[in-house]
Write a structure and sequence with these properties.
Chain B: Its EC number is 2.3.2.23. The structure holds 2 protein chains of 2 kinds. By secondary structure, chain A is α+β, with helices and mostly antiparallel strands. Chain A is 55% helix and 10% strand. In chain A, helix 8 packs across helix 11. By secondary structure, chain B is α+β, with helices and mostly antiparallel strands. Classes of the chains: A alpha+beta, B alpha+beta.
Chain lengths: 327, 220
């Protein structure tokens, strides 16, 4: 991981810290509904303030709260929509967000696929884009075969770090079954389509199984490459260095634990993905892209849209995830 | 078969096949999602020799969300509610992950009995007892293990016979002489036990609490 890549660490740290705070508070006083009330007060207090005046961590809070409100009604991952829909949401907010969205549109990203803001959004978005990329590959059969062999060889790492087979085999079967189905018809003769792919990722059992598998892959990679990653492992709340085992148990393996730069770096490496993350943070007029380049033989990449505390998928006009302007 | 059922069946089988862990899981009723786990109290602790039963409920979204566990057997421990059996343990809450299993979680409960965390208590009164007078706490925990979990009772006991009736003063972890003192003033035993337990009237701490303070509480 480069120092540039590690810069984003701080930003995500805040939102996780908030989540942890809430949980701890709720546990400490289970009988007091006060913690919930206090939080509403904080949100209300912020509403009269111009977005541009808020600190970065306040922005994350605000964004995460807004996303949390939406959680119950949103699918786990959504159909494609024009990015203008996102722009409209910022109509009454900071003009900088609108300028940044216009910049993305000019760069060719006119479509957006949202993931639910449940803490799993990074893994779910990458999982979806990973399968979609295989699906859209010109040499589909080869892409399927190489993805399946990559995943099969990864089981060694899971065993090496001591995960029980009964813990991961169902998750693995779910992801592999989906990829297999791109090329091989199921018993009823159906192969994977864009529609069934979306359907599978919206189905909680399949979708969460895939997220869980990607989390275990990430964890095993971090654990097996401890020397390389340990300088970057910090407790998101306390800022203290953590050992890799504690980090993985508390901030990688569990459902809903948000991904930070360390986890992004690890997962993109494992899946050999080229990923660009566009930072839509309202802090400047342009959008910064951070690259995670892991396959020099391919010009394809997946583009994620990062807003404080959340990831969605960006797509170009033709639905392809790569924008020519950025290659 | 849905994923949850498949996983739970594997976990139950895994536990059955493992003869070394001493962890047992059985069905409580017809549902595979409501189970009873049990394990022996760890050695060299007040829980040694007892058998501890745990009520297990597998939620709909298992293994993505944590299993729900509480003690069926009454346990005297800072992180376990002496009244309800509710457990304060991070992996049953926000530190849960799908890597954990019923067996590994029950093993974690067993370790919790070895290493109480009085700073993060589930039962504040028991935690106070633990931090202020450890030996008296251990006597009480041993007594609870004996009467509720089938434990052997205190090691230095002159007679190894089981107490014929449950001693409510010992259950509350109090000193018989203390209770009798306030009973002597004319207060009812149950009330005295209740107040002294709440005040943590034990060991060195008892000297810190004046008789007037106790009487004041008794009169409330």
């Amino acid at each position: 991981m480069t120092s540039e890549e590690s810069e984003g660490l701080e930003s995500r740290t805040e939102s996780i810290a908030n989540e942890v705070d809430e949980t701890t508070a709720a546990e400490a006083k289970p009988q007091s509904p006060g913690s919930q009330l206090e939080e509403v007060t904080v949100c209300t207090a912020l509403s009269g303030v111009a977005l541009a005046d808020l600190s970065h961590s306040q922005l994350i809070d605000l964004n995460q709260n807004a996303l949390n409100d939406l959680v119950p009604n949103r699918p786990l991952i959504e159909g494609v929509e024009p990015i203008s829909a996102l722009r409209a949401e910022y109509e009454s907010g900071s003009p900088r967000f609108r300028t940044q969205i216009d910049g993305l549109t000019d760069a060719g990203f006119r479509l957006l696929r949202r993931a639910r803001g449940d803490g799993d959004c990074f893994y779910r978005a990458v999982g979806f884009a990973f399968v979609e990329q295989i699906f859209g590959d010109q040499e589909q059969d080869m892409a399927v075969a190489s993805a399946l062999s990559l995943l099969e060889s990864s089981l060694e790492w899971l065993d090496a770090v001591g995960f029980q087979r009964l813990v991961y085999e169902d998750f693995y079967d779910t992801l592999c079954g989906l990829i297999q189905n791109i090329a091989t018809p199921e018993m009823n003769g159906s192969v994977l389509t864009e529609a069934t792919l979306l359907d599978q990722f919206q189905h909680p059992e399949a979708s969460n199984s895939i997220v869980a598998f990607l989390r275990l892959l990430t964890s095993s990679h971090l654990r097996l490459n401890e020397e390389e990653y340990s300088p970057f492992l910090f407790h998101p709340e306390l800022g203290e260095p953590m050992n890799v085992r504690d980090f993985c148990e508390n901030f990688v393996e569990g459902s809903g634990k948000e991904a930070d730069h360390v986890q992004i770096t690890a997962l993109c490496r494992i899946l050999r993905l080229n990923v660009k993350v566009a930072y839509l943070d309202g802090r400047s007029d342009t959008v910064d892209f951070v690259d995670f380049q892991n396959d020099s033989t391919s010009k394809r990449f997946i583009t994620l849209l990062y807003r404080p505390g959340h990831y969605d998928i960006l797509l170009t006009d033709d639905g392809s995830p790569s924008a020519a302007a950025l290659v | 078969m849905d994923a949850r059922l498949r996983r739970v069946n594997k976990e139950i089988a895994d536990c059955k096949n493992d003869k070394t862990s001493n962890i047992h899981i059985e069905l409580i009723d017809d549902s595979p999602f409501h189970l009873k786990g049990s394990f022996p109290g760890p050695e060299e602790t007040p829980y040694e020799g007892g058998k501890f039963d745990v009520d297990i409920v597998i939620p709909e979204s298992y293994p993505f969300q944590p299993v729900k566990m509480k003690f069926i057997t009454k346990v005297y421990h800072p992180n376990i509610s002496s009244a309800s059996g509710a457990i304060c343990l991070d992996i049953l809450k926000d530190a849960w992950s799908p890597v954990l299993t019923l067996k590994s979680t029950l093993i974690s409960l067993q370790s919790l009995l070895c290493s109480p965390e009085p700073n993060d208590p589930q039962d504040a009164e028991v935690a106070k007892h633990y931090t202020t007078s450890r030996s008296s706490f251990e006597e009480t925990a041993t007594y609870w293990t004996q009467i509720y979990a089938g434990g052997p009772g205190p090691k230095k006991e002159k007679s190894m016979a089981k107490p014929s009736e449950r001693d409510e003063i010992a259950i509350a972890g109090l000193d018989k002489a203390h209770v009798e003192k306030f009973e002597g003033i004319g207060f009812e035993r149950g009330k005295v036990i209740d107040v002294l337990r709440r005040l943590n009237y034990r060991g060195a701490n008892a000297a810190q609490i004046t008789d007037d303070r106790v009487v004041e509480e008794l009169l409330k």
